Structures are given as C-alpha cells and as structure tokens.
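Allow me, if you will, to draw on your knowledge of protein folds for a short while. I have a record of one protein: its chain in single-letter code and its fold written as discrete structure tokens. Kindly check, if you would, that the fold set down in the tokens agrees with what the sequence suggests. Thank you for your consideration; the sequence and its tokens are set out here:
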Amino acid sequence: MTKIETWEDTGQGYPLRWWVLPIVCLPTLAVLLNGNIVFIALPAIGDTFRDFPNLGEWVLTSFSLVAAALSLPAGELGDRIGLRKVFSWGLWLFILGSGICFFAFKGWILILGRVICACGAAILAPVALACLRRIFPPEEQAIAFGYWSASVTIGTVIGPFLGGFLEHIASWHWVFFAPVVPAAIGLLGLLLLPLLPGKQISTKPDYMGITTIGFAIFFLLFFLMESPNLSPSLNILIICLFLLTVVMWRQSANKPSAIIPLNIITRNSWYVPSVLQLFIRALFVFVMTCLTVYFQQGRNLSALQTSIHILPLSIVSGVVSLVSGYLEKSFGVKYLMMATLTLTALGFWSLRDIPLSGFDGGEWFGIVAFGILYGNTAQLSHQALVHFPKSQAMRGSAINTLIINLGLALGAAIYSIFVSIALPLNLKQQSNWQFPVEIPSSFQAILNQVDQNLHTSSHSQSLQALQESLAHSFGFGFALCAIFCLIAIAITYSMRPFSSN
C-alpha cells in the first residue's frame, strides 16, 4: 500500500503556517510578559513580604530555575506524544500558576505559584520553537523566527510599562494576571494548530540525563544565589554535589538516547551561538534589575515613571526583532552579532559614570545599543536548532530553552552577588555612614541598614549616600558588562557555519 505523503514529508511546510503563527506566538508572549512585567514590582513585593529574605531574587530565579530544569523532560514528552497535546498541558499549568501568584498572601505561596507557572513555561517556550521547525520549510525559518521573536519583544516592550501602570492604579498582584490573557487566547485557538504527532522513537528516555542535569542546574544556581549566606563548608558541599551530578551525567552522555547529544553540542556551530544566548539573556536580567533599582531607589521614581524610563530599551529591542530574520539572511548571524556586540560594548562603556540628575545622550545610547543586541537573539536560537532533525525538534528546542532560562537565572544570581558586594563597599566610602562590619547579603538588608542609619544621621545625608553608591556601583557593573561584550566578540569571531555532514 502506497504511503500518502503529507506536507511534512514533502518539506513544503504547513499550508496555513502563517495563519497559525500567532497561535504559536501568543503563549511565548505570555511567558516573556510574565518575566518582564515582574521587574517593576520587585520593590513592592519585597516591602509586602519583609519576613521573606531575598524574595525579589527568588521571584525571578525560582521561575527560571524550574523552567530550565524541566525543559528537557518537556522536550522528551513533545517528541514522543505530540506537540499540540503538551502545548495544552503547558497552557493550563501556566494559567494555574499565575492565578496562585495573583491571590498570594504569603511569600511562600507566591513562590509556589511561580514554580507552577514555570512548569507550564518549561513546555510553552520549547514547543513554540519546535512548531516553527516543523511547520515552516527551511528557507522560511529565519524569517519565521524573526516574527516569533516579535512576541518575545512585545512581552519585553509592554512588560515593564504595563507592570508599572498596573502597580500604579491597583497593586503588584495584577502584574501576575496580565500574562494570563494571551495564554487564554492561545488556549482558545489551540484547535487550529495541526496535531504534529509524536515520532516513533525506539529508545527509552534518558532518565539518568534528565535527572542529573536537573539537579546540576539546581545546585549551580543555588550556590550562586545563596553562597554569601552559607558557611564555607556548606558551599564546598554544594560544589561537590554539582560536580558529582555532572560526572554522573557524563557517564550516560554518549548513549544514542542521550537527552543532550554530545555529537551535536560539541560542534562549534552549536555551542558558540548557545554561549552567546546564555550571555545575552543573563545580561538582560542584570541590566533590567540594575535600571529598575537605580530609578526607583536611586532617583526615587515611582514604578510607572521607572517603566517609562526603561521603555526605550524595550521599543528598540522590539523593532529590531521584527527585522532580525531579514538581517540574518543578508549579513549572516556571525557578522550581525559581532556588529551589535561592538555597539553594545561602546554603549555600556558610556554608562560607566551614571549621573544622579538622570540619563543624558551618552547613557541613552548605551540603553539603545543593548536593545539592538537583545533584539537579534532569536537568530541565535535558529542557528542552534538547525542542528536537530525535525523528528527531534522538541528536544533541540528544549535544550535551547534550557540555555535561555539558565541565562535568565544566572543574571538574577549575578545581580544578587554583585549588589551584595559592590553596594556596601561604596556605602562604606561615603562620609558619616555607619555601616556594620558584617556586609549584608541582600539589597533589602542594605535598605534596612539605610533605615537604621536615618536615626543616627541626617535624612538627606543618608539618602544622598545611597543614591551616590547606587550610581557608582551600577556604573562599575556596566563597565564590566562592556568588557564581557569584548570577550563575546572574540567568541563570535570563532563561530563556524553549520554543516550537516
């Protein structure tokens, strides 16, 4: 009996692919909106739950940590049982978690909601990329990824502004309700998506790889976040556990069924764009958090005013992402990223000396330059995914999502470590500032010290010391970002084109 060829067999693409694209993009918009809308609300959340140390960092990191750890099993499910089915699971989990965050009245309930929401996001992000790989022919994929990145950008553009607006007219609880809207619309339009059934895979799932990688990510990020609060012996224990899980994963990594195939991830054409993706996502969280704290605490702006100041970065990123597919086809991802990284390095260097009076032309140049860089990151995802055949589209997308979420979590962890070291050191240099010998390990603890110091010195002196220290600390951080961008340029130069041979 002759087999009837389908649109997947012919490689011509799904006939209604451009009509289905918005359905694929809406859940991605919800996930990105969920992440970016929270930045503005972090100070208000910290004020509400003062008994929960480092809650702001945990709100960010718990989401990225869980989404990163679960993206690999989500990818395994998608390739085995079908994309549309796991897509619906992800949407329901995401909506449920967002609802719990909305009604949270305790810090631990808020974190629980973020964890459940992250379980849904672990599915939604890779399944969207996998759908693009399967419903679009190769010659259209770069452009499709560029349009998909528009959903990422819209979440980036409206996230901070919408978060500031909702907090201004209502409360921080509403920032967790807004992402439910695009997710619910995506759920209603799910039937228009082709079934995209799972492939016949003869090998068993790589349970060892899934488990060990999940624990390795947890130990790594927990160490980065909490190492200043832990004793040296406990830090050593966590490092040993991380190395142990890596060794255990390495024992099974050469198997044909390995969840992360070494024959792919050791290729220069895969790991260079993946490392760049990790770097830029971490940079995004670090920069956004620094800007939010600087405007709200350093310049005493409201959440709405802060979101307006951050809006240029988001708008530029959005406009660039819409055309990134065409830029990639014209110049190639290697030279496109080298150019944008060079521009960003110059921009960050202009931010090394932040004036307390506000940003001028040089500072805004730095913000816009980083927006251009961030707008092109979707093409790095495309370069990484072409290494995986369509039968493993979900696995490749899950690994790419793991890289993205790991970068987001690393950015939050790096910010936490940076601010716990740089800000107290700058504060101790300010005149008439009584600071304890033991340096606080969180921004909230530093603010508590500011409140205590207000009783021993003048109010204006303390606030001026805090504002100057924030400007000096974040200016130094942006200078370091410029140096890292130069290193990233050298890494990008080593990128080789992908070859299927």
